Amino acid sequence: MPENYVIKWDETGSRLYETGVDHGVLYPISDAGLYDKGYAWNGISAVTESPSGAEATAIWADNMKYLNMYSAEEFGATLEAYTYPDEFMACDGSAEIAPGVYAGQQQRKTFGLSYRTKIGNDVKGDGYGYKLHLIYGCKASPSERAYNTTNDSPEAQALSWEITTTPINVSGMQATSQITIDSTKVNATKLAALEQILYGTPAGEGTEAVDPRLPLPDEVAQLLSE
Hints:
The protein has about 230 residues and is mainly beta. It contains 2 helices and 16 strands.
């Protein structure tokens, strides 16, 4: 911090906000435990992140509060969408028993997610930047669906899933289910390389197409810090 530093509020360009959700991608986990094939998830309308835990338990000694101990923190979310990729059906407890015929109440497959939220400011609006959210170890709970008759005020059926997560290991830190990357704070070239991994690359002259995949946190950290 420079000498004689003085706090200033609401300077031009510093009025930040976050909005929107787009670029949703589903990554079902493979039998090898990798998120090695991604599928575009169109129609995502909202992702409500709902961390829980980290609750304090007071420890008393010597007739006074000695310390606070905190429970483990968990990450959960509610995902709302108007549709979903076919590959999500196995994650939602459905299995195909014949072409176009699905049995429900089956084992739910673990999956990963990525989605993007926009960062705006008072100068560039919503185009200032964005955050990439990478979510690991997801399981979707059964969701309620209401089928309503068509009327003079038609609405598309909104779907919703409660998502719980199981954290995965991160070198030098506690296990986590969530990684967030801020485009305004990382190297643009390295970020572009990460997005090629997340979204895949088409075939080019002398090169083959590369499937999209969800890299684990250690790979993300290595890629963005090299």
